[in-house]
Amino acid sequence: MLEIKNLSFRYSGGAPLVLRDVSFTLKDGEIGILLAKNGEGKSTLFQTILGLRKPLGGQILFDGQDLLKMNRRERARYVGYVPQEIRFGALSVFDTVLMGRISYFHLRAGREDEEAVRKILSGMEMEEFADRNVLELSGGERQKVAVARALAQEPKLLVFDEPTANLDIANEQLILQEAKKLSRERHISVLTSLHDLNQALTLGDRFFFLRDGVIQVSGGREVFTEKEIKRTFDADVRIMEIEGKKVVIGG
Amino acid sequence: MTNERKIQKKKTHTVIISLAAAVIVLAVFCVFIGSSHMSIADGFQALLKKSTPANNRIIWNIRIPRVLAAVIAGAGLSVSGLIMQTNLNNPMASPATLGVSNAAVFGANLSIIAFAGGFLSTGNNLASYTVGANPYATSLMAFLFSVLSVLLILGLCRLKAFQPGVVVLAGLAIGSVWTAGTTILQFYATDVGLSAAVIWTFGDLGRATYRTDWIMAAVVGVGIGFFSLVSWHLNVLLSGDASAKSMGVSVNALRFACLLLASLITAVCVSFMGIIGFVGIICPHVIKRLLGQDHREVIPASALAGSLLLLLADTFSRSMGNGSALPVGAITSLLGAPFFLAIIFGKEEGR
User: Fold this and answer.
1) Are the beta carbons of A200 and A207 closer than 8 angstroms?
2) What is the pLDDT of residues B5-47, one digit of tens each?
3) Which of A150, A180, B36, B257 is deepest in the core (most CB within 10 A)?
4) ipTM of this predicted structure
5) Is A72 within 8 Å of chain B by CB?
């Protein structure tokens, strides 16, 4: 279980706090969705969890272990990252996924690392891609490679920054299904942000509404209300129930 | 292993083996040709130290150190360029991006103009053979200033966590300070001092001795050894800093070590041989076009390609200069640039 306790962050000494006493929990295999306007600290929170930024105070606990007290290599075995802008070098898919093992193998990949990669690729039905150059792949395929690489870290949490931002609708669905599969079949917690509120409703188990550096509300689908969206995004939407499912209708 | 992988592996092996073979053949060939018009048979005799003393000296004291210098400096400059490009995430990055060459030129100018060092005023002119005129003084001064420049830039960039953009700009700024210093020195120089200083900057492998070769070999060897050791980390770095860090790579420490070692390689090559441009840009790019970006393969292949280009350029320059070789630095660009353009503008290759 991921427990974030009283996490605070600011960019420099006198600057205002970007995150203020942020606390929430995410159980193993749950998908948590962070909902906030751009510039409200979404990326900062992700970066702090990933160890890219040092918080002012607080704890990021995984089964009682504090991520903030670990070195980079140890942390890489807890948290995997799929960035919004994915960059790759001209290497094969196999070698690219193998990179995710670097926190285990240090200098040279061993047989067990290659075996782990083979398992992940077959689990994601990507074996036939294995020897292709990643730069030749489509946007959706590249994102799958990035997910596979993060999985090679054997993480307990996957941070997925705007996974659908650069994808067309078919690839969007592909990657959301992939995220769902990870959480349900591998029991990996997923923390993500999505612009599309309907996608968020379909995918998420828990929702965290972030505004002014504070988590205003968190919880299951019941907290996903018109009022909350108005407060977080300054946007007027209507939420209707169609066949028992909540649907967000804009403007 | 699938077919595709086998083909790729085979291609990589073919490229590396052909490069190695070409380097060996050309290196041997270069020992037997030169402006003294020694016959091949005499060359063999001299190689066994059984020819005339003059021939023995030409082979053992002039040609072999020179060929070794081409192989070592070529490999060093090429790999240095590759490492700069990877670490600064910039295809334009070169061995001299941290202002190493400018600093080396300033150091050499200072030694030649202000302290009457340098080869023109030493070997050729015994009258000015003073304390400051040790033949190694100029190289030493050039090396000291380039190391100083590198440390200054890396020290500055530490404040900004070695962000690639900052490093490139800092290199540019500090490099231009050295160049300004050089201009001022040259303004006050005598005609002889000025020409000696300018000629020093022309890359010339003829300055090589066994001692310079061993020093270069040690630095280049340590550098390439280290880069090969961390080739997986360099591969991960291609994914960007945030991803690399999230995978557990200590990006700042890696970048610091790589920039320092790559710059030291350049510093030692430039200090002994003068400026040999473009090797560090052409060779890594050609190799990346051919093989992709896996550093396990690209590092050895770039090293060999650098050796080959410098050997070729030196052979060419020795055969053009009518007895005294043309500056090899000019030839590398002259030979390399059109080839480079052909590759850039040529058909896009898949991997």
Assistant:
1) yes
2) 788 888 899 999 999 999 999 999 988 887 777 888 888 888 8
3) A150
4) 0.91
5) yes
